[in-house]
Structure of Magnesium-transporting ATPase, P-type 1:
Amino acid sequence: MSDVPAFWHAALSDTLKRLGTTSDGLSVAEAAARLERDGPNQIAEAQRRHLVADLLRRLANPLVAILLVAAGIAGATGDLASFTIIVLVVLLSTVLDMVQEHRAEATAEALKRSIALRATVLRDGHPDDLPVSEIVAGDVVMLSAGDLVPADGLVLSANGAQLNEATLTGEPYPAEKHADPAASASEMTDAHNALFHGTSVIGGTATMLVVEIGRRTRFGAIAGSLATAQPPTAFERGIHKLGILILRMTLFLVLFVLLTHLALGRPPLQTFLFAMALAVGLTPELLPMIMTVSLARGAQRMAKSKVVVKRLSAIHDLGQMDILCTDKTGTLTEAKISLVGHPGIDGDDDDRVAELAAVNARFETGLKSPLDEALLLHMLDRPLEAWRKIDEKPFDFERRRVSVLAENANERIEIVKGAPEALLELCVHAQDRSGAIVSLDDGMRARLVQIQGDRAAQGLRLLAVAWKPAAGLDRIGSDCDENLIFVGYCVFVDPPKASATAAVARLEAAGIRIKVISGDAAPVVQHLVGALGLRVEGVLTGEDIAKLNDLALAARVEEIDLFARVTPDQKTRIVHALQARGHTVGFIGDGINDAPAIHAADVGLSVEGATDVAREAADMILLAPDLGVLAEGVAEGRRTYANIMKYIRMGTSSNFGNMLTMAVASLWLPFLPLTAVQVLLNNLIYDMSQIGIPFDNADAGDLDRPHGWDMPGLVRFTAIMGPLSSLFDIATFFLLSQVFHAGVAEFRAAWFVESMATQILVVFVIRTARPAWISRPHIVMVVTALTGLFVALLLVLLPWSGVLGFAMPSGTIFASIALLVLGYLLSSELLKRFALRDGRNPPQVVDGRLQT
Ligand SMILES: Nc1ncnc2c1ncn2[C@@H]1O[C@H](COP(=O)(O)OP(=O)(O)OP(=O)(O)O)[C@@H](O)[C@H]1O
Ligand SMILES: [Mg+2]
């Protein structure tokens, strides 16, 4: 990497001295000073772009730049009015755009900050829960299983600390960390005394001295080069394609208008300005702003219904999600686990079982599972003080058991507790109530399997407990799973969550199929879904999945709704298999074991109380561990999508219509239908009139099933509504020039009004697939749209309209225009039933289930 010696080579005492700190950490005042000096501990550059820089960036947009140059030419040739107005309009619309977008981004950022990761940091010698961004070099941070390492640093002390460093090193196996110096380690993979930002603690605890923060960490160094941006969603890709299409058409039209007018001998400068203004008018320049504002507004509303969005574009995915994978504990159950029994091999409660299990739970340093907590709670009145820990082999989700080496005055033994099926297999002896050790024959094995089956069928969760003598041993050996002596089971109850049934029903009614993916045993999961009354089909276990390759798995995942005893890796495989079948997949989970699947899903979901790793991997965080909250979120996602589509439909259809109109007008009219200034004003007012769209209400039809980017539907909409608007434009031309023989200024005023009214008012028609008078628009949208129309009328009616090149049209002209506009709105209302049909084959909902 670099010639500077790696930070883990130096002696700890030297590093402490260099950083001016001790193993008790910094004082609050010193930390504040360092935060001021070094800046926050974050990898991304400060998000807030500088306002002036942003303005310049927007003005550098080629279209705007051409306009400004054109304005300059107009000014130089003495057309001061055009110069001033063009510059004003350009500035106004740019600033408008920018302010809206900044405000939206600020809202989204604030929401995100509310769920920022926190860490336990020693300040003034006391542990304090602080946002990770406030960590400075010299701080001492306390880490435990499930935490993300917030910076680079040295291990001060560790207790069975195991780290997953795959993000940095690609190494899938956990790395053990301890405080001994590693002066000779040249690679980070060998630096067993160093902790790196972005890795996660999967077992044990550690205290860490922070050495490097933010971009100076190893992770920060590569994160900068590896663009961390998420790949665009299907919706964003669609929008991008549409943008390119519009750009091509605009270019074509502008060239066409330019060449025809020049060929017909019209004044070159004016024609050029007009063509440029047209180009500006045709670009959906407001689209990015409308998208950001809609998404931010969606995020704000979702926050009210307790879903905090970390990645804004995930709102699209949420609206499009048609499969939700969920883990069991906490989402479908109350996660209030208690021990209800500890039967020995005869089936009756045996205290030795509870005691050994509790010793194991007490000494295990990994993330305490709710099962461990239930065990410890049960033993509260009988402290395990006689026991001393010697060694441990921590829990992992592949082995599904924990081994602990411990002793009391009488014995030194290895105690194992874990998933019963596998653990029973490993036992060759059993111990009965009297303490006698008997051989575990087939008959007894069958009786024990029977106990497992009985309890699981009642929905009770089981852990098996076994042990073996370990006199003279100081470490757990590689033979730790051999020759075990079975003592009994711990039986837990985790009551089903009452609200889950209704929440699942709501999600299913919204066209989302639920799949339960659990690390628990199949009968337990089956009993639970039965108790909740969920309609789920089929079961696949981790063992089955291990035998399937990805292709075979993809063939099975559709019809199976229950997955039991799966490993974390298999959770991810299931998500990928569903994605391969074309589904938009959500995954909700809270554990270390869920994080990879959360990351792989289109919509990664986690809950407030989940482990850091799960929350970090998620796109959205539910503030309440309740699927009902998610159902609300889905509705918001779809509303956001529906509103963005309104803007896009308005834009594409009126653009396409305008293009046709302009092409016809250029050939036919002896003058430009509008001056450049008028085109720009038209565009500005139209833009402003649409600012209310993100606030609009959505119809039930927009919310009751998933929908994604639908290009064929959009093309059909444009092909129907575009020509319709041209038809009425051309009718207006005809009326004005052939019937009323309007003068140039009067013609332009009338056409300005007609074009504004049709463009602005049609939103009330196409915002809904239902009859326009049934579906109520949001008041903010009504007000912005009508204000736009009012301003347009003022520009023509006020005395100074002459400055803009308008002359007041006669009352008859106004009346005919009003009739034309009315006719346009009515025919749009009639035709929209053909234009607004979904372009894809609508998914069929049969018997409440979405058929795919
Ligand atoms: N602390 C523990 N000690 C021993 N075994 C454990 C412990 N925690 C979990 N196990 C075993 O590992 C299995 C898988 O763990 P867990 O149930 O947490 O997985 P999961 O996929 O998160 O399940 P869920 O869907 O319930 O959230 C458990 O069913 C249990 O048999
Ligand atoms: Mg879990």
